[in-house]
Design a protein that fits this description.
The protein is mostly helical. The protein contains five helices and two strands; from the N terminus they run ααβαβαα.
Length: 110
């Protein structure tokens, strides 16, 4: 259908852009992600929504959520099915919905 064609076109464009960037730019060494100590998570006082892709490879999602719920009980979490950490690309509507609902819920609480 039209949506499938549009999605295929978007993916093709992303691949072409990535290949062009690979030819034009020097590869950088990426900074490895840090696992924050419990004290850092506990020090977060701002209302926080932590979004995960179910297929995240950097850190096991279930372990991360268990840890967050244990050490930082105020942090809200959500998992996007069939997604990795590229939520803005693979789940933009899900991401927007979750963020808007989170912000809306905060307005109701005030």
């Amino acid at each position: 259908g039209a949506r499938g064609d549009q999605t295929r076109w978007m993916i093709d464009e992303l691949i072409e852009d990535a290949m062009l960037a690979r030819r034009c730019f020097r590869r950088r060494n990426l900074i490895p992600p840090n696992v924050l100590p419990d004290e850092d998570w506990q020090s977060i006082t701002t209302l926080t929504l932590f979004l995960f892709g179910a297929n995240e490879m950097t850190y096991p999602v279930k372990d991360a959520i268990i840890k967050l719920h244990r050490v930082a009980t105020e942090i809200q979490t959500a998992i996007a099915a069939r997604a990795d950490h590229h939520l803005t690309i693979v789940k933009p509507h899900w991401l927007t919905d979750k963020v808007l609902r989170f912000l809306s819920d905060q307005e109701v609480v005030k």
